[in-house]
Fold:
Amino acid sequence: MPSDYLLACIGGPLLAILLLHGRGRRLFVALVGGMFAAFLCGAISGFLARMVQYDAMAAVLYISPLVEEGMKMVLFLLFLFVCRLREAELPEIAVGIGIGFSLLESIALLFTAGEWQLIVLFSKAFCSALIHVACALMLILSIQTIRRMAMETVSGYLGVYAVTVTVHALYNLLVSQAGISLILGYALPTAVIILWKFTPRIQRTN
Amino acid sequence: MQPNDALVQEVIRRSRVLRARQLHKRKLLLSIGCIALSLLLVFLLHGKTGMTVAANTEFYGSLVFEGHGSMYIIIAVSFFLAGILAGLGLDTLRSRRRQRRILRYTEKWMEKGGPATPAPKKPQNP
Structure:
């Protein structure tokens, strides 16, 4: 499918955001921003892969996580510094951006997938959304912690970036193979999300 | 005039309103700029890019485009990032200039022992 069509799909909802107000608009902006960033990431990864003469598989394993997490971080920092969001609002922005990323990937998947079983397609799209949301949450919560600890430095941000890139690359590597590796890959984002959900309760108990 | 609690509260309230207005203006400008740039990008890139989604995407965990014209996207992203840096730089310069003007005005006022002419910027009434 030509990439121009994907860009056209993003352009329409982008204008509809102006009709919304408040939290709804912010969430929708995060979602469309995520979709637009995913489109740019696909093009950048393709360009870098062609430059270093990698095939698409190698590009997904070695280049895409770097580019995707980098773009996510730029988007977060934009939201954080331009919109001056409160701490409670940060997770919903992270979820919006993560879902935007996975939505565009799902659209691409829809156009390239052949005769696939419905349950396999669903689990692939669902786990793709989970990994993007998990990485986005990891990024935004770590940035929040770094800001709170007054360590707002480049090295702090680079550390957070390195962790999310590693998790994303691990997911891509695991799901690229069939069998137990695929199941482990699908379980990875679920484990991260569960950890995020239960961390406050564990901290409260201690 | 002696500052009292009511006066201080009023000053804080007005500063909050001004801050909210400033943020609202900044967000509006940013949204308009982003939409305009996106539309411009669509028109400029029309027919120049020939990228398609990589084959066997269903086996991958991420999205990769293949084909020609991706360098235009790289240029657009570089300009966008450079634009953020330039915007931040301009904002810093503007705020420094404003601070210098306020300092100069205060110094003048302190020397003369009365209000100097003219004030740097009159705060708007909410």
About this structure: Chain A has one domain: 3-205.
